[in-house]
Design brief:
alpha/beta, Rossmann fold, Dihydrodipicolinate Reductase, domain 2, 2 domains, eight-stranded mixed β-sheet, 13 helices, 14 strands, binds L-homoserine
């Protein structure tokens, strides 16, 4: 019997609990044993919830229960989530998360801690929502020298830009809609100022290039300043504006990495990725370009990625493990001023290919 504790009953956490319930037979079949959510930790009250008997408020209940095999951390942020993750790993429990902030800040330490304790720390849901990207990039493209990652990695901003492009809707109205649909972060500035995309490109680039890249080393611009005029001007020139995260390993070994609104030609593979969808193109020396596409945010798509990690960590610790080496990235990440970006106008970069 596999017992799961879900920490944080927000959009993603509640999706995971529902998915474990709804597809319980499917999970059990794949795992060859029963699985259930035993606890849900949240400081809030959920009166009338059908899961009322599972709620706890004290993490030590989870930490000290030898029956708990997997902790799903969907608290978000890097304070409580950081403490809970370390305590869970030290207690010999696998941890699965959607928390990109925590992964981008502390993955080297948490991955090492997982390894020391013979468990997994998996975070497929931290990038691209429901899109399988981390596992396929890390495992299925393992035979490639990866040299470039370019993608739309934030559903909220892609939703906003799509509304502006297709319907001439104002930035503020589109943001409110994205919040209502459950796509946006608690503080939407993480979405619209590019911080969320910054965390995601750091996670992918760290996995692809083998050294940890911290978000503070990444030049990051968001879409707050983009106006309908910018959108129309791009349209007149046969382009669309998208918020992209880009990372490229150069011949001298440096990584050039940035987040910026970019004008891209209408024929570009990422130009027609709309609404909450994300698209990420990874380039390897054997495969060439490989693009991953799907729902980049939202309750059930993100729960889908968490669910896959739950199955993965039960099925095989060695195969499921992710590793990267921490490094002094002053000799690894090219500084902003040497990035040599071309600009379409103002703060909008130009990406031709
Ligand atoms: N706020 C994020 C987004 C959620 O809009 O993409 C998924 O990481």
């Amino acid at each position: 019997m596999i017992n799961v504790a879900v920490v944080g009953f927000g959009v993603v956490g509640s999706g995971v609990v529902e998915l474990l319930d709804k597809n319980n037979r499917l999970f059990s079949k794949k795992l060859n044993q029963e699985i259930a959510c035993k606890y849900i930790l949240d400081i809030r009250e959920f009166p009338g919830s059908i899961y009322a008997d599972k709620f706890v408020k004290d993490f030590s209940v989870i930490e000290n229960d030898p029956e708990i095999n997997i902790v799903v951390e969907t608290v978000g942020g890097a304070t409580f989530a950081y403490e809970y993750t370390k305590r869970a790993l030290r207690a010999g429990k696998h941890v699965v998360t959607s928390n990109k902030e925590l992964v981008a800040k502390h993955a080297p330490e948490l991955l090492a801690l997982a390894r020391e304790n013979g468990v997994c720390y998996l975070f497929e849901a931290s990038v691209g929502g429901g899109i399988p990207i981390i596992n396929p990039m890390y495992h299925c493209l393992a035979a490639n020298e990866l040299n470039r990652i370019v993608g739309i990695m934030n559903g909220t901003t892609n939703y906003i830009l799509t509304k502006m492009i297709k319907e001439g809707v104002s930035f503020d109205a589109a943001l409110r809609q994205a919040q209502l649909l459950g796509y946006a972060e608690k503080d939407p500035s993480a979405d619209i100022d590019g911080i969320d995309t910054g965390r995601k490109i750091c996670i992918l680039a760290s996995l692809a290039f083998g050294k940890h890249i911290y978000p503070e080393n990444v030049m990051t611009k968001g879409i707050r300043g983009i106006s309908l005029d910018d959108i129309y001007e791009a349209d007149r020139q046969g382009m669309v504006v998208k918020l992209l995260g880009c990372a490229e390993k150069k011949d001298d070994g440096f990584v050039e990495i940035f987040v910026s609104p970019c004008a891209i030609p209408r024929e570009h593979p990422l130009a027609n990725i709309e609404d909450v969808f994300n698209g990420i193109t990874v380039t390897g020396d054997a495969i060439g370009d490989c693009t991953f596409y799907g729902r980049g945010a939202g309750k059930m798509p993100t729960a889908s990625a968490v669910g896959a990690d739950i199955i993965d960590c039960v099925k095989g610790t060695e195969k499921s493990s992710l590793f990267w080496v921490d490094a002094d990235n002053s000799t690894f990440v090219r500084s902003f001023d040497k990035l040599n970006l071309e600009y379409f106008k103002n703060d909008i970069a130009l990406l031709k290919e």
